[in-house]
Amino acid sequence: MCYNMRYLRGVEILKENLALIKYEKLTTKEKLILYFIVYAFLGWCLETIYAYFVFGHFVKRGFLYGPICPIYGFGAILLLISLENIEKGHNLKKFIISMVVFTIFEYFASFLLEIIFNQRWWDYSNEFMNLQGRVCLTFSIVWGLIGVIFINYIHPFVKKKLDNLSMRIPVKMKKFIIYLAFIVCLVDVVLSIAKHIGIF
Fold first, then answer.
1. pTM over 0.90
2. What is the pLDDT of residues 73-117, one digit of tens each?
C-alpha cells in the first residue's frame, strides 16, 4: 500500500514537471530576443554609471530615447552564438574568439554609425595599433577578457535569474512581453534615427 502511494506520488510529480517544462518553453529566437533586451538595458546602466562617475552628474547614454544601448545587446548575442559550443575550461579559445568577434563587430558598428549619423561614438586614433581609429589592440584584448568573463560568469548568473523569474510567468504572457519589448525597441530605433538624420 505504502509502495503504491509512493509510486503514484512519483508519477504525479513527473507529470507536473513535464507540464512545467512544456508550460515554460520559449523558442531559441525568443530567448535571444530576451537576452538582447536584457543586456542592452544592462549596458545602458553600465554606461550611465560610468558617465556619472566621470562627469559627476547624470548623462543620457546612447542615441535612443529609451534606456537601452543596442550595441551591448548585439555584442552579447554574438558572444552567446560564437561561444555556446565551446567546452567549459577552454578559456584561451574563448578569449581568442571573443577578441576577434568583438573587434570585427566594433569596426563595422563604428563604420555603419558613421555612415548613418555622420559622427563617431568612439575614436581610438591615439591608441597603439589602431585601425582607422575604429578598433585598437588594447580594446581588442579587453573585449577578449570580457568575453571570457561574460560567458563563464555573467551570463550563467543572468540566465539563472531570468529562469527563476520566468517560472512565475505564464508562457503566453512571457511571449507577449518579449515581443512587445522588441517592437518598442524597433520603434525607438526608427524614431531615434529619424531624429538624428533630421527627418523631424
1. no
2. 999 999 999 887 777 778 999 999 999 999 999 999 888 888 877
Question: What whole-number distance in Å separates Cα of residue 1 and Cα of residue 4?
Answer: 5
Place of cell 552564438: 81
- What lies within 8 Å, CB to CB, of 74 at 6+ separation is 36, 105, 109
